[in-house]
Amino acid sequence: MSFYSCLVFGITSICLGALAGCLICVISAKIANKKYLRSRFAVSCVLLSVAVAMCAGGFVLISDMAAQMQFVFQNIVYFAALFALGLLCSVFWRSVLPLCVLVYILASAFTGFKLYSLYGSKADSITVTVTRNSIQLERDNCPVDDCKNKSIVVEARVLPAQFLFPLPRVWYSTIGVIDSAAQVDWGENLRFNHAFSGPQSDVIQSEGENKGFAEKVLGPRKNLLIKIPPQDAVPSIYTLSFKTRGEVLTCSLNKDL
Question: Are the C-beta atoms of residues 1 and 68 closer than 8 Å to each other?
């Protein structure tokens, strides 16, 4: 399921839960002959409008709605929790709502900090310099015995769709180079592969400190290998460009000199 589909269903669940909370408060106040906030009716109308708009937009913009609905039923506990969260924030808005906002901000900041510690700032492009005995990725020097038949390793992680945080969905960085003929697994930590060459100490230390968070929360890494073309003459200079669209990362290597 894509992040945008999860966002649509998640916001709809929260709005419906908050709407149910408003109705519960109004009905219970009527039965007990107590006063209730007159603004709840206006808030209920707004919540209902948002829920309807999100559903309508989802049916128009989300492809393969049947498959997305199947995901919702498979993760019914998650969306039920969002519904309950909206209900609690509506009923106990003075205490629960500020607490939920604070927790959401802290969770977003913590996740962003961990991802930045692992991958740093995301560059749109980097300069790759190829010499006979080294390949330099921007400022990272990767010594090699021979510059032929090498591939640049780009490590990436995609935030789970359930993480409704205001953060980039795809995080990536170049970690080094590897022999193009080497056998690698999609989610393998290539830093420990015998055919890998790249900066080790600081990166591995950061990887170790954040390994638990990355593996348990973010899920497995994904490795992209960008083959360096055969060199007619060295040194050669390339530009490695990155482009993200939704949750898909594409890389292109173009020769400058």
Answer: yes
Give the model confidence (pLDDT) of 143-173 as tens digits.
888 888 899 999 998 888 889 999 998 999 8
* 91-112 pLDDT, tens digit each: 998 899 999 999 999 999 999 9
- Nearest to residue 78, comparing CAs of 5, 171, 167? 5
- Tokens (6 digits) for 95: 């205490």
- Compute the 3-state secondary structure of the chain and give helix, strand, coil in percent, each to the nearest 5: 50, 25, 30
Q: At residue 137, what are phi and psi to the nearest 5 degrees?
A: -100, 95
> How far is Cα 200 from Cα 9, in angstroms, rounded to an integer?
42
- Per DSSP, what are the bridge partners of residue 170? 158
Crossing angle (nearest 10°) for helices 76-91 and 96-119: 130
For residues 156 and 236, state if they share a domain.
Answer: yes
Picking from 93, 122, 144, the residue at the C-terminal end of a domain is 93
Which SS3 state, helix, strand or coil, does residue 27 take?
helix
Same-domain check for residues 123 and 227: yes
Residue 88 shares a structural domain with residue 119 = no
Rounded CA separation 143/244 (Å):
29
Torsion of CA 111, 116, 118, 121, to 10 degrees: 150
Which residue is associated with the tokens 């913590």?
110
8 A C-beta contact, residue 127 and residue 237 = yes
71 burial level (CB within 10 Å; 0-12, 13-18, 19+): middle
Q: Give residue 191's identity as a one-letter amino acid code.
A: R
